[in-house]
Each structure stands twice: as structure tokens, then as C-alpha cells.
Specification:
two-stranded antiparallel ribbon, protein tyrosine kinase activity, transmembrane, alpha+beta, single chain
Length: 367
């Protein structure tokens, strides 16, 4: 009897739960319908606000300056090799397999990309002189003019008349502070450096700004500065070795020339030497020994010098520009049609959400 009663009670509870779920779902549907009807009743306000948003979008598109993008692409090829393994690594990279065997130099892979983003290279580029529409000026001055920084420095005596046309060793704290802010901004918002493909050695450098000339000149200058620094650092040891050998070769050659002159002088001092007096030949013979020794040393140094030159040419990386920025640059901007559509839709959605929240708060207060 008790079991039967429990079954009847359980069945009743299940029916009650299903009924409550059905009522809740219907209530949810009714609330959505009421909300929809409420928004339809407010269509004049929604259309009005959306039209205002469309007008704001049009004004934004009209007054907003386009962003100009300057892109440089170049290929970087390292000289020297790793023997047969390097050849197999090259074949494997064609099918997407990396088995190593490449050069693991200081600037390999992502390191050279980080070099482009380094403070030193961006600072050097900003302090470089570029040609803007036929006028020579520092890139940092163009950057200040582009962002109208001097308008905010009028009330600051230490920044009002600041000039960057001074040697870097005379820079003050204000100079370094301004450059640090610019370097961070360029790294974060303007400069993009990437490899177009991980398996290739093609590197792309992009600089975007609202000044077309600044974008072009900065992109050209930073590629020039970084690639020059890269080649200089990569070949530094070989260049120093070549300079030392060249200095030694010049010194030995001078000694050889002096020795040849001494032999001639010794012979001229006794032009018709009596064969019976061998002592008179000693000075010239000594000079001839010096000449022979200097000649042997000079030949060895010259050979080492040629080897050093070959090594320098072998270690010098090949950097070949593929594309450089050419005016007019690619530009990104918000078209008037896009501004109108985006302003209309965004403002309309915001208005609908605002009206819905206000209606819900009013209903809650009434309850």
C-alpha cells in the first residue's frame, strides 16, 4: 500500500515538474515577445539614434587620416655550410621537415627579427637624417611633428625648445625619456617584423603611420641600419684578422724594400771588388740574406692575406632586397560607406540594449 502511494506521489511530482518547466519556457517566450514588441514600439527612438550613429560614423570616416604602410622584403642567405647535412636539411625543409644542420649563428632565425625591434636600432633610425619631400630632417623631428607632441610641450620649459641636433653624448635626461617613449610606441603600434615563411629566409619589415613619407623613410632607414650592423658584426672577426695581416704585409714589404736598397748600396760601395779580397763581399751578402728572409716572410704573409680575404668573402652574408616601399604607399582607412553602416548598426544595438535594460529595471521596481 505504501509502495503504491509512493509511486502515485512520484508520478504527481514528475507531472508538476514538467508543468513548471513548460510554464517557465512559455514565460520565457512571452518575455522575448514582449521585449520585441516593446522595441518595435520604440522604433522611432531606435531609428533616430541609429541615424545619429550613422552620421557620427560618416564624420569619423571623413576626418580620420588613413594609415600608410611601408613594407620592405629582403632575403638573407648565410655563407659557409655544414657539408652534406646542410644539403639534406635544405631538401627536408622543402617538404616541411626540420632536421637541423643549419647555421646557428647569433642572428639566425628569430634573433634578427628581435634585432629589428631592439631599442638600439629604433633609436639609431629615429636619429637618422632622411629626405622628406626634398627636405632633409631627422626622423625623430618628423615623428614629433606627425604626433603634434610640441603642442603639449608649450607649457614645459624643458621640452618647449628641445633639439635633437646635438651629439648623442650631450643628450640630457629629457632627450632619453622622449626617445624611450617613442621606441615603445613604435615597437607596439607601428613596427611589424616577421618571416613570410618559417622554411624560407625572406623577412618582411612593415612600418605603419599616418605620415606617408615617415613610413617610407623609416622603413628604408631601419633596414639599412639593421642590415649594416648585421654584416659588420657577422664579419667583425674576419675583418680584424684581415686588417692585422694587411698591416703585417705592409711592414714586411717595407723591410724588403729597405733590404733591397741596402744590397744595392753595398754593391755600389765596391763596384769592382778584387776577387782576392772576399771580405769586401760580406756586406752585400748579408743584405742579400735579409732580402731572401724578407721575401720568404712576405710570400707567406701574402698567402695568409689572400686566405683571409677569401674567408671574409665567405662569411659575408648575402642580403638582397626584394621589394622596397614605393610611393604611393598602401593605405588603410575607413570608407564613408563603412562608417555609415558601422555607426548605424553599432548605435542601433546599443540603443536596443539600453532600452531593454531600462524596461527590465522599471518592471522590477513595479513588482
Amino acid at each position: 500500500m505504501n509502495t503504491r502511494a509512493k509511486r502515485v506521489e512520484s508520478k504527481g511530482n514528475s507531472q508538476t515538474t514538467n508543468l513548471e518547466d513548460e510554464i517557465s519556457f512559455k514565460e520565457f517566450v512571452f518575455r522575448i515577445k514582449d521585449g520585441y514588441n516593446y522595441l518595435v514600439s520604440k522604433w522611432k527612438i531606435i531609428v533616430l539614434m541609429s541615424s545619429i550613429g550613422a552620421l557620427c560614423g560618416l564624420l569619423y570616416a571623413y576626418f580620420d587620416k588613413p594609415v600608410y604602410i611601408a613594407e620592405c622584403t629582403f632575403v638573407l642567405e648565410e655563407q659557409g655550410g655544414t657539408g652534406g647535412l646542410g644539403q639534406y636539411a635544405g631538401l627536408a625543409s622543402m617538404v616541411g621537415i626540420d632536421i637541423g644542420g643549419g647555421n646557428n649563428g647569433l642572428f639566425q632565425g628569430d634573433n634578427i627579427i628581435e634585432l629589428y625591434k631592439s631599442r638600439r636600432m629604433i633609436r639609431k633610425t629615429l636619429l637618422s637624417i632622411g629626405s622628406f619631400e626634398g627636405k632633409k630632417d631627422l626622423l625623430i623631428n618628423r615623428y614629433i611633428e606627425m604626433n603634434r607632441f610640441r603642442d603639449g610641450w608649450t607649457n614645459n620649459p624643458s621640452l618647449k625648445n628641445i633639439s635633437f641636433y646635438v651629439p648623442e653624448n650631450q643628450f640630457k635626461r629629457q632627450h632619453d625619456s622622449i626617445i624611450n617613449v617613442m621606441v615603445k610606441d613604435i615597437k607596439k603600434n607601428h613596427l611589424i617584423v616577421e618571416k613570410l615563411d618559417k622554411r624560407l629566409s625572406i623577412i618582411s619589415v612593415k612600418l605603419s603611420s599616418k605620415d606617408e613619407w615617415f613610413s617610407k623613410v623609416f622603413a628604408d632607414k631601419i633596414v639599412e641600419n639593421v642590415n649594416g650592423f648585421y654584416v659588420q658584426t657577422k664579419t667583425k672577426k674576419s675583418s680584424e684578422n684581415l686588417k692585422i695581416l694587411q698591416k703585417q704585409a705592409d711592414s714586411v714589404k717595407n723591410v724588403l724594400n729597405l733590404s733591397l736598397g741596402s744590397v744595392a748600396s753595398a754593391i755600389d760601395a765596391n763596384p769592382n771588388t778584387n776577387p782576392a779580397f772576399q771580405f769586401l763581399k760580406v756586406p752585400s751578402q748579408r743584405r742579400q740574406v735579409d732580402v731572401q728572409a724578407s721575401s720568404a716572410i712576405y710570400a707567406e704573409v701574402t698567402k695568409n692575406l689572400e686566405i683571409a680575404r677569401i674567408a671574409l668573402r665567405k662569411e659575408t652574408p648575402l642580403i638582397q632586397m626584394i621589394d622596397s616601399p614605393v610611393l604611393p604607399l598602401e593605405r588603410k582607412y575607413v570608407s564613408k560607406a563603412m562608417g555609415i553602416v558601422a555607426g548605424f548598426i553599432v548605435t542601433g544595438l546599443i540603443t536596443c540594449v539600453f532600452l531593454s535594460i531600462r524596461a527590465m529595471i522599471k518592471r522590477m521596481l513595479q513588482n
